[in-house]
Specification:
Blueprint: H1 2-35, E1 42-56, E2 59-73, H2 125-153, E3 155-158, H3 159-162, E4 166-169, E5 172-177, E6 182-187, H4 189-193, E7 200-204, E8 207-208, H5 212-220, E9 233-239, E10 242-248, E11 251-253, E12 258-260, E13 263-265, E14 269-274, H6 279-283, E15 290-294, E16 297-298, H7 302-310, E17 318-323, E18 331-336, E19 339-345, E20 348-354, E21 357-361, E22 363-366, H8 370-389, H9 403-416, H10 418-436, H11 444-457, H12 463-492
Antiparallel strand pairs: 1-2, 3-22, 4-13, 5-6, 7-8, 7-9, 9-10, 11-12, 14-21, 15-16, 15-17, 17-18, 19-20
Helix pairs in contact: 1-2, 1-9, 1-10, 2-8, 2-10, 2-11, 8-10, 9-10
Amino acid sequence: MTTFLYDFAFLLVALLALGFTIFIHELGHFLAAKQRGLIVKRFSIGFGPKIFGWEKDGVEYRISMFPFGGYVALPQLADMGRLEGENEQAEEKKASPWDEMDDDEDEEGKEADDSVEKPLAKISYADKMIVSVMGAVFNILLAFVLSSVLWCFGYERRDGELTTKIGYISDTVDRWNPNVDQSETVTGPAKKAGLLPGDQVIMVDGSQVEDFMDIRSRIITGKLRTAQDRRLTRLTILRNGEQKEIEVFPEVFGNEEVRIIGIGPQETFFIKELQPDMPALKAGLEPGDQLISVDGNKIFSFAHLVDYLMKLEEDREIALTVRKGGEKGMEQTYNLLPTEKEFKEGTQVIKRKLIGFSPEFKYITTYPNPLILIVSRVKDMYHTLTGLVSSQSDVKLRNMSGPVGIVDNLSYFASIGFKRLLWFVVFINVNLAILNLLPIPVLDGGHMVFATIEKIRGKPLPVALLERSQMLFVVLLFSFMLYVTFFDLQRLFPF
């Protein structure tokens, strides 16, 4: 029951965080429209039929049924009637929204019929561009504010997340075979290429990398292929002070076919708990000890140690060197005999050699510069979008996250700490800003493109064209949302 309440609380926090992000975006449009003197008909969080709302100063504020975003209804910029599921169009006057407003009296001096809606006042090109862009501007401003909070107070990250050094090379990886719709085990690409634990990655495909998450992101969104159409990743590394360029041929993992090469980060780890009647406890190891080498070979990560133990071909003692009590402690070497245990993985029984402890990893408080953090997120989005449209890339629409995936991630980060939640909200705001500036009808970038075309033409685009393009892309947008939501649900509940 307690677990359920915690999960519900984190889910609620996630929904509030996403809702606040959307609210800030639409607030940017709303305030800009008000400042420029535009007519604001409606401020909505979500699309579709109204769940509830209220009216103030001639503006209807509402929460709508489909929480995939939101909008500010600006009839002088774009008519939202059909998108809102209303049937107003049949009764409306078919004048262009950019026509000049008529006088209160007609040409003959007679009073105009109040039942007929008057054409709306023309707005300038500058008005259209400013109002359209301010949603993205407000998201970037929110990202900057939250980044500044993180800069002031800092947040903890595992040291393995911050490094660009390789700490583990996998002998094998699971390659997805679409022909049989399942994975098959193959030799790890990094292993094949000759990468070694301790190698420091400087660049991936010519792009500078900042941390291990950056390395993984550049590999996943990679676009290089050989003349024979093999996937290719070029790593620039430092090994013993010498710079090398190594070509790696990635495999794809899972039914989403994400590029992998089989590496993990270098990390610092300690003994957290000792298991009873196991070699580590019997040998005299203690909680807090830092593991640094085995049989004289440096340990670069916990996965590296596990891999070393698995490869022991015979029952023999190992020499395990630790720093007593942590990084500043004295080194001490223990001789111990790993014990072998059986584990069931699916239908297979696997034997593993163990010494009997659970690890604790080193965390470092970081104070990221707000501008650097935002620029880094912009670069990530750039690589993702260019990968999405490139035939050489393996990035596909199904790799994207929809509302369900975003809420799930927000919930996860909420569960591990408020500061990590802020970090992810920064990520979401930058992504939302960039996506909304894409030149797609319905999105802000689409409005800016239409406004620019009208400026060049010197006259408004046909209303019918605007309405039909909007409706077409609304259908496409909702189809996309349903498509990525399907894969979000598949990731959450495999079937």
